[in-house]
Write a structure and sequence with these properties.
alpha/beta, Rossmann fold, 5 helices, 42% helix, 15% strand, phosphoprotein, TCS_response_regulator, Sig_transdc_resp-reg_receiver, CheY-like_superfamily, Response regulator
């Protein structure tokens, strides 16, 4: 059976705490791994030759990350057979058109702006979890 965990790639500790609280508030009980920068995210996904069955079911990726930026993480994910089909939601505060176009150009499945209001953040988290972890049918590995 495919792993149903979530990898949250976020360097802001307040946003991590907010996301974890919002997931819990929405009764999304999937295992959550947190990478604090792009380098750590790539290490989690590649360094230990993670079996495809243990890859996360969803990656929530910030764009502005230390060490390795979010777009580069996305490029590397899409370049490897074991990770190219994992759904990636770019979750960012940026509304720059260039960020939006670049994210989709690099293979993002979705681009969501982080709400500032807590109630909106909880709603967005619920919607993301419901769609990507319950409604969406993930691609089967070849």
């Amino acid at each position: 059976m495919k792993n149903r965990s979530i990898l949250l790639v976020e360097d802001n500790a307040d946003d991590v705490a907010l996301m974890l609280h919002a997931l819990k508030s929405n009764r999304i009980s999937n295992q959550i791994s947190v990478a604090e920068d792009g380098e750590q995210a790539l290490h989690i996904l590649f360094a230990d030759a993670v079996e495809p069955a243990k890859q996360p079911a969803l990656i929530l990726l910030d764009l502005n990350l230390p060490k390795v930026e979010g777009l580069e993480v996305l490029r590397q994910l899409r370049a490897h057979a074991d990770t190219r089909l994992i759904p990636v939601v770019v979750l960012t505060s940026s509304l720059e058109q260039s960020d939006l176009h670049n994210a989709y150009g690099c293979g993002a499945n979705s681009y969501v702006r982080k709400p500032v209001d807590f109630e909106e953040f909880v709603q967005v988290t619920r919607d993301l979890g419901h769609y990507w972890l319950q409604l969406n049918y993930p691609a089967l590995e070849a």
